[in-house]
Fold:
Amino acid sequence: MDTFFEFFSFADPNIRYVVIGSLLLTASSAIVGSFTFLKKKALVGDAVAHSVLPGVCLSFILYGEKNPIILILGAFATGWLSLILIDIISSKSKIKEDTAIGLILSVFFGIGIFMLTIIQKSGNAAQTGLDQILFGKAASLVGNDLIAFAVIAAILILSVWFFFKEFTLLAFDEDFASTIGLPVRGIELLLTTLTVLAVVIGIQAVGVVLMAAMLITPAAAARFWTEKITTMVWLAAIFGAFSGLTGAYISYIAPSMPTGPWIVVVISTIAFISFFMAPRRGILYRLNNQRKIKKQINDENILKVLYQLGEEEKNFYEKRTIEEILSKRKFVPVALKSGLKRLKREGYLKNDNGYWSFTRAGKHKGQRTVKLHRLWELYLTQYLRIAPDHVHDDADTIEHILTPELEARLEKLLNYPTMDPHQSEIPYR
Amino acid sequence: MEALQIILAGSLVAIACGLLGCFLVLRKMAMVGDAISHAVLPGIVLAFLFTGSRDSVTMLIGAGAIGILTTFLIEFFHKKGKLQTDASIGVTFTWLFAVGVILVSAFAGKVDLDQDCVLYGEIAYVPLDLWITDSGLVMGPRVLYITGTVLIILIAFITLGYKELFLTTFDPGYASAIGISTAVWHYLLMGAVSLTTVASFESVGAILVVALLIAPPATAYMLTENLKKMLIITSFLGVVISAGGYYLAAWLDGSIAGAMASVAGLLFMLAFLFSPGNGMVAKVKSKRSKTVLNPSEA
Structure:
């Protein structure tokens, strides 16, 4: 616990640097990643991330020491080259884009690993720590490196802020963007450059292998909470920064641990929570919603059947057994029983020793469902000229969906009819 | 002798990956292969921890199961969560791979695995890791037996299921019309990919296996459109990649797996440029001869 307070009091200037550094690196890649995510180019980030490795190694071989600026330049060069090659391969040959991405990604990474192992065996003392670029090490951000990376991160964030509208248009409606005279190619180029830059600096904290997650995962998580792009980008930045902070802390307490994987596990956890729990778009919300609708349909069908039984015998308030209901329509027995109980709770039905009967509200609701069903059948036969024996199934679905407004318009359109195509009465109150 | 054993191991791995890769490339599922090869890592580490040994069938089965789980998760997030496919792939495999790397670091003492092995395997140690029977008989490098077995299983799988694989790849609509389940063959193929990546893991690591899955089939695809020819060319390329990689690595003193990936990339580049009919050079030439033939159009 001591280390926790020691770290989060930020009293040690080194810790301050590391924290600020990792926050900037992760947040800026999350921000840029939001746009590649929306452009559905998420895996391109993966390719760039793997492809910077040979650049880093090559500049080290040529320069002989770990100068951050030189390494950044090398990484930038091969990162860019990989994108150009993917583009050439997928546009000039029958190779599809996903194959091109996988090919470039793995071959560039293989070349990088080959170079890295050659460097490691060469006995150059300056190379120690070069392999941290694979899985990241937030705590190794010190002094000069930090300044270089922080400047680039700031450039990234400012560029996105400045070109926010253009990037948004590009992500959602490229055709429209070019129609109103935006230089689409130029903006695309800028976004690509920013992506490469984000990867180049982000690998300091997360590492080459898992960098893709920092571009994709925060954006994917943020997307589940909002429909507004401004909010989404902010959320992605906050999620990214939070995982970066955790990574810096872990790097501080467990120096032997690579930080990249921890950052990725944190951001993935946030993402999974978002996928399941987020209101409206989340998986649990959707499932719950589906269940609610299913229940509603089931209950309305029960009321409909009771109404139809009442219609046949001209006595709507007669007590019915479960068998009578089942003889009219096939329900799953369990669903029927729970539906009946629910309808009683809600005041639509009464139960008397296993016999079920309508309340006034229940009869009214059953009547409305029957009415909608028959109105729709009539509409389909009259306006879409569908044969009367083909309209039942469709009406059975739509009767649960029609709103009172649509109901009123249907009535008016059909001129308040009294009979449906099967000569059953359309009940008004 | 050692060189031969390493090249043989490399070839077996490269052929196994390449054969499956052909189907991945043709099905536009190259990135799913990438995802699976990363995602099996936690399965491998956990199997190591529980069984304490490398050559257990449990490990192959466990990691294979994780591979299928990965495919399932990708589809689950895509279908139930309405997450776009590329992001679904990206989120799932980076998460599983991160968990795997953490497990490797956390149990570094207990597990005979390290980050280097994860990244580029240990094919150079193949001749040292011998299979010795209980009676003390030396049977030769263990890896050769494992990858050899997996390759035989794969060849059997592809030969026996050739028609089904072919149809579900090129005409899934027709396949399901004549009663072939596309879902079953999809998961069988993904299971095979998992099995192969696990078996190749020790030799070439989790990431470079992707180069062997994608690069040789992509190269072969530049040269032919016939699936059978593509499978044969891919196998041939596997041997070239393995031998070329070994001698390149010996020459420059680097990782053999890294060198193999580099050779694979080089071969693709050659095919991309010089393939008769599909290559860039051939295309430029045919364009030029057309303009010469029709001077009036110019």
